[in-house]
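quick one, 399 residues, struct below
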Amino acid sequence: MKLHSPISPHTAQNKLFRFVRVASCVSWTKVLFWMRVAVSLVVTTLLLVAPLTASAERIKDLASVQGVRDNPLLGYGLVVGLDGSGEQSALTTQSALTMLSQLGVTLPANTTLPMKNVAAVMVTATLPPFSRPGQTIDITVSSMGNAKSLRGGTLLMTPLKGADGQVYAIAQGNLLVSGAGASAGGSKTQVNHLGVGRIPAGATVERAVATNLGQGDSIYLQLNTADFTTAARMADAINRDISPDSEIAEALDARTIQVAAPAGNARITFLARVENVLVNAATGGAKVIINARTGSVVMNQNVALDECAVAHGNLTVVISADNAVSQPNALAGGNSAPVTNASIDIQAAPGSLLQLKRGVALGEVVKALNAIGATPQDMLAILQAMKAAGALRADLEVI
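---
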C-alpha cells in the first residue's frame, strides 16, 4: 500500500492564497460588469429624459399672477446746481418763483431771474408690487426744455403721482449722468446723452398700493403670450405636480388659467410651489418681422417656404443736368439766356433666377436669399412678394 505524504503547512497556505486570489478576481470582475451595466442604464435614461425636459420652462417665466403688477409714477420738478448748462424759459422762471413762494420767499411778479443753473425736468419711476412706505425706488430724470446738460445737477423734492392723481413717492437727490460734453468758440464735443440722468434709490415710497392675489378661492395666471396649447399644458402640469388627486387648475382661454388656492398666508406658499412647476411651452407660429425704417429683418425658426422661383435685380436711374448760359454774338442783338441740358441714364442690373424648394428651414431660406445677393433692403421687397404669391408660410409683420 502506497502512503501519501502529509501536506506541508507551506503548501496548504499557498493553495489557500491562490483560491482567495481567484475568488477575488471573479468577484471584482462581476462588480465591474454590473457597474458598467448600471452606468449604461443611467446614461440611457438621461438621454431619454433630456429631450423631454430640454424645452421645459418655469411657470414664473411664462405667466404672471393677475393683480401683481407694476405701477408707473410721474412728477414734475426742478434740477438746480448746473454749471451754466440750464435753460432760460418762462416755464423754469415761473416754477422757480412758485417754489420760492412756498418756502416763504416773496418776489415781485415781474421779477426776472437768471436761470442758467436751473432746468425743468420730468421725473418717472416704476412702483413695484408689494412696495411699502419707507422703501426706495430708482428714478429717471429727463429735461423738458432746452437745457444743455443735467450733469452735476440736484433734483429738488418732487412728488410722484400715480394714474389716480395720488402721491405715492417723493423724489430727491443728485443726478448720475453717464455722458460728458464741452463747447467753446462754436465747437462742441459730446459723449452719450446729457439730457437724461438717473438717481438710484432716489425716491421714497409714501403710500402702498393694494395688491389682490386672486378673487375668492382662486388665483388667475395670465400667460405672457396667448397660446391655447401652452395654457392647456400649464393647467395639466399644475394638476399633475400640485394636486394629483383632484383638478385644481383649468384653462379659461388662451391666456388665463384659473387655479383653486388656499386662503390666508398659505396662499403665498402655494404660489411659491406653483411658479416653479415646469411646463413644456408650445413654440410660436412662423413669423417674419420687418423694420422698414432700418431695413432689419428677423425670422424665427418656424419660417418655411413653398416651392417658388425668385429673381431680383436692381434698377438704377441717373438724371444729370448741365446748366449753361447761351451768349449771342456781339452783332446779333439777342439776350443771354440760361440753358439746361439734361441726360437720363437707366441701368438694370441682371438678376439671377433661383428656384427654392418646398418646406426648407430657416437656414436654407437665409442661404438662398444670400445666394441671389439680396441685401437687407432687397429682402424687404422679396419677402413681401413671396407673401403676396403665397410662397412664404409665415405671418409678415411690418413695424
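Residues 287-327+336-398 form one domain.
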